[in-house]
Amino acid sequence: MTDSTAGDSEAADLETFRVETRAWLEANCPPEMRKPATSDADVFWGGRSAKFSSEPQRIWFERMRDKGWTVPDWPKEYGGGGLSAAEHKVLRAEMGRIGARPPLSSFGIWMLGPALLKYGNEAQKKEHLPKIAAGLIRWCQGYSEPNAGSDLASLQTRAESDGDDFVITGQKIWTSYANYADWIFCLVRTDPTAKKHDGISFILFDMASKGVTTKPILLISGYSPFCETFFDNVRVPKSHVVGTVNRGWDVAKYLLQHERAMISGMGERGVGRPLGQIAADSVGTDAAGRLDDAMLRGRIASFDVDEAALAACAERAVDLAKAGQAHPAFSSAMKYYGTELNKRRYEILMSAGGVDALEWESERSRQGARPRAWLRTKANSIEGGTSEVMLGIVAKRILDLPGA
Fold first, then answer.
1. Residue 159 in contact with residue 188, Cβ under 8 Å?
2. Contact (CB, 8 A) for 231 and 168
3. Which family does it belong to (predicted)?
4. CA 132 to chain centre
5. What is the CATH classification number for the domain harbouring 94?
6. Which residue of 2, 174, 190, 254 is 20 to 30 Å from 367, comparing CA positions?
7. 287-311: per-residue pLDDT in tens?
């Protein structure tokens, strides 16, 4: 078979997959799941104590789970769909075409899963990956500490060897959804005498373990997913270390690439209404049907162009990653651009809403949710690495600037 014939066959197979996928989604995605989530409570995170917010949400999740499409590109033996990179791209496009929500949101999917696939041993993969895919365990991330945020490698949470276990003592902060999580993937210092980037291990343990406590942190928005997390002599089997003991920084860096790529996605509109349509609710339109504010029209037009550029870069990043050609620092550029773009989105929404956008009484009302969401975006350029840190990484590792 010639290269041309093989290419034609692959294209035909992919088109068949597209047709079949489109038909399946049309038949199986409930109408209610083709609309944007209205609040965090309207997103299904899975976990031991998970409850569905509606019957359509349950139906959609279970149908996608049974197809392996909560994690379409993971191997089937770990609960995934086994799709190729091209097939996964088609699935994303077809879900976007009908505005289908992701069936499951999970730090296990976005961050821990890729790290386990690369660094986990077979027992760890078989133990954790199928549960992540099935939404059975909800995970949180134990990285930042009160004195180790942007300088994460300065972390001091220690894990002391005691027979077959480590005994963990210390504190984490900004631990998103720790008060709801079942398990945590955590960075701990296992060799206090080593250089700060060495002597760190990446370990997994149950949040129900004796000695683990959490305390929510209230933000200016009136709502927060963040917590302080405390470890008081928490005993964890050494078999729960992912990768090599004292080489956890390698795992941590790899996981951060996926975290930053995930956070950058907030810059994309997704399945929500276009910004111009939302602004028209408050500003109105002129006789030609255009937004009745020329300055605001210009800001939105510029934003829409940048939003489309981010979406194109995100697709390219996925393709490069699947081909093994991605630059390890590209996720930092995406994280910077996506989070700054999301902040711009809400600045425009606040401007378009005028005085009405300042209404605060109900965080679930259409207007009341806007200022809370606007304030929440201020954390976008801090979490997962500050914008300043991201620019430093881009300057040093991508642009190779002198003195960076």
1. yes
2. yes
3. Belongs to the acyl-CoA dehydrogenase family.
4. 14
5. 1.10.540
6. 174
7. 888 888 899 999 999 999 999 898 8
State the Cα–Cα distance between residues 213 and 228, nearest whole angstrom: 8
For residue range 306-351, list pLDDT tens digits in order. 998 988 888 887 778 777 787 888 888 888 999 999 999 999 999 9
Give whole-number Cα distances, 158 to 196, 248, 300, 327, in Å.
Answer: 12, 13, 49, 32
Quick one: 181 and 238 in the same domain? yes
> Which candidate, 137, 228, 219, places its Cα nearest to that of 178?
228
Q: Taking the CA atoms of 342, 343, 344 and 350 in sequence, report the sign of the dihedral they define.
A: positive
Same-domain status, 365 and 277: yes
Q: Check if the beta carbon of residue 81 is closer than 8 Å to that of residue 71.
A: yes
- The answer to whether residues 56 and 157 belong to one domain is no
Are 34 and 146 contained in the same domain? no
- What pLDDT sits at residue 365? 47
Residues 281 and 394 in one domain: yes
Q: 6-10 contacts: CB < 8 A, separation 24 or more?
A: 10/86
What pLDDT sits at residue 187? 98
Sequence length of the chain is: 404
Q: Where are the alpha helices (DSSP H) in 156-293?
A: 248-264, 275-283
Distance CA 175, CA 395 (A): 28
| Tokens found for residue 31 | 């109408």
Paired with 291 in beta bridges are: 285
124: in domain: no
Cα–Cα distance, 376 to 141 (Å, whole number): 19
Count of domains forming the chain: 3
